[in-house]
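Appendix B, Record 12. Input sequence as logged:
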Amino acid sequence: MKSYLFSLLDRLPISTDDRQFFYRAGEQVFSADPGLLPQAVAIYYDSDFDAEQVTPLLERCAAATGISLHTLRLLLVACSAERMENTYRERGYDPAMFTDFLRDLACKVGECYRWRGEHGLDKISYWYPLFFRLKLFALGRLQYEIYQRPNVQHPITVGGHTVQPEDVVYFIHIPGLGPLTKELCMDSYRRAYTFFKDDFKDKPCVFYCTSWMLYERNREFMSPDSNIVRFMSDFKIVKSFEVPEQKYWWVFDRPYEGDASVLPRDSSLRRRMAEWLENGGKPGGGDGYFLFDGETIIND
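Logged structural output:
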């Protein structure tokens, strides 16, 4: 397991300084107790990735070594990825899918440092279990969760097809990996269509998303040719709603608590959104759907 951990760190697209930090933490944990990470991984898998079950072990390690829980969570997830990578290989999945998973992991490491000032991962109770259960797949710029919509009681009609509440849809997640261009999105949609096509067979491929990016009022302050507005236009937006201020955490790398004057404005998106909030705009989100036939988006 130690050799796998260092192999994964070598492939993780993070800075040399961050990589060296995690190398040292890994060496320290294996020197203090060679069986700790293997035991933690076993507990994590055996409990169906219940972070509560493995946290006491990580807390004891943190107390003994001085390594933060955030760093230990990263080491746990990195070691846990070995089984997933082996499964990908056995099933003949494109190796680029695991590379895209590593890009997501690096993204979350960056978010943890910006949000918490800690090297590692903020939480592991929800996101990475989806990957390890083979319910979430990174396919190029976007990620897709095999998803049955909770608390949905009414059918949705899009492109002449009715999506029933119990139907499986492919929930698009949008990692913070740079520009969300039309070309990258279309490439990802095609990859997802090819990857899942044996599952939906004779039914349409239904993509679903709920995100602040689908908030209809974004059009009030975003340019019509911005990447986010173009992304919104891929969907039939069936619901638009206001949400608590903390929703814009993802844009500003901090919670928005109602005072727009303190928000950073070091990008055009941040500047436009901060000005809009300052002028009385409210945070929000939206739900949307579209059908995809491998080449064409159908959202009427």
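Residues 136-243+283-298 form a domain with the Aminopeptidase fold (CATH 3.40.630.120).
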